[in-house]
Design brief:
This protein is mainly beta. The chain is built from no helices and seven strands. The protein has a four-stranded antiparallel beta sheet with strand order 1-2-7-4, with no helix packed on it. A three-stranded antiparallel beta sheet has the order 3-6-5, with no helix packed on it.
């Protein structure tokens, strides 16, 4: 999967609940700054408070704690975070990193 920098994703929406499953393969890490994000979620999240549940696996992750994520209100962006809620950056990922995730959020 990561050998070609692949990306995949799918979603299902039932009522106001969207479930997203996907993955990203990182071949090389660039010099970008700021929070690591995944943009382009299929629907804008709920405006007032967002109910979110799911999981993510990152291998290898250059962290001493688990990776997690957050989808804030009124957005189509997921922010990657450490277990303490601090946004991850490019320094937390190495070459040939794989991210796999599945989560649900409200619209």
């Amino acid at each position: 999967f990561y050998s070609n920098g692949g990306i995949y994703g799918k979603y299902t929406k039932v009522g106001n609940l969207v479930t997203v499953t996907g993955g990203i393969g990182i071949l090389t890490v660039g010099s970008a700054t700021g929070a690591a994000t995944i943009t382009g979620l299929p629907f804008t999240s709920l405006t007032t408070g967002v109910t979110l549940g799911g999981g993510m696996n990152v291998n290898p992750l250059l962290l001493a704690v688990a990776a997690t994520f957050n989808v804030g209100p009124n957005t189509t962006t997921m922010v990657l975070q450490d277990g303490a809620g601090t946004a991850l950056s490019n320094t937390n990922f190495g070459a040939y990193t794989e991210l796999h995730f599945s989560f649900s959020y409200q619209t």
